[in-house]
Design goal:
Elements: H1 3-18, H2 20-34, H3 39-49, H4 55-64, H5 66-81
């Protein structure tokens, strides 16, 4: 057993608990992927469409209000096509 591997694993778990932005981004990525759009394209489409939702709001929509997230997604996709 290597001490480096277990401490690296422990540090990773602690960071996940202490870094809420990591969880926020993971929620947005998962929700966008489930709907067939890679998160990088989703973010680009949001910028092009002028949708000013921050990551915290998007993560909240993805988890708490999926219908609202579904309403934002086509706008982002439409902006990518233009």
């Amino acid at each position: 057993m290597h001490a480096g591997n277990s401490s690296r694993h422990t540090n990773s778990l602690l960071c996940r608990r202490k870094c809420p932005e990591v969880v926020t981004i993971a929620r947005i990525n998962a929700a966008a992927r489930q709907r067939g759009l890679p998160s990088s394209q989703f973010a680009s489409g949001l910028r092009k469409a002028g949708i000013g939702l921050n990551c915290k709001m998007l993560a909240h929509l993805a988890v708490e209000d999926p219908q609202a997230f579904d309403a934002v997604l086509p706008k982002a996709q439409g902006a990518l096509e233009n």
